[in-house]
Design brief:
Layout lengths: L2 E2 L4 E3 L4 E4 L1 H7 L2 E5 L6 E2 L4 E7 L3 E5 L4 E6 L11 E5 L11 H7 L4
Length: about 110
């Protein structure tokens, strides 16, 4: 089950992180991505990636704390996910929005 942030990132229980379809639509064509480094420790709520599109640049914030275990080097061609991580505190996920809460947040109720 995915959980969502107010800044339009998602994370699943496996620790895979991406940006929502809403964010992708708002950004438009993404032309550059700055991904984190495998092995890097990250803290929930801190900037971890940068996406640049034909419309704007957007910071991506980590929805949870942990350590980066994999990155999607092919994000520009296949933007399903950004990175994977080992979570250091599973309880952080409970503070994030469910799919229904996120849908209401973006006005898709």
């Amino acid at each position: 089950m995915k959980r969502f942030t107010k800044s339009h990132e998602w994370i699943d229980e496996e620790g895979t992180v991406g940006i929502t379809d809403y964010a992708k639509k708002e950004l438009g064509d993404i032309v550059y991505v700055q991904l984190p480094i495998v092995g890097q420790s990250i803290t929930s709520g801190k900037e971890i990636c940068v996406l640049e599109s034909t419309k704007a640049a957007a910071d991506v914030y980590s929805p949870a704390s942990g350590k980066i275990t994999a990155i999607n080097d092919l994000f520009l061609q296949d933007p399903k996910w950004l990175y994977k991580m080992d979570l250091s505190n599973d309880q952080e996920l409970s503070s994030l929005m469910t799919q229904a809460e996120y849908d209401q947040f973006i006005g898709n109720s």
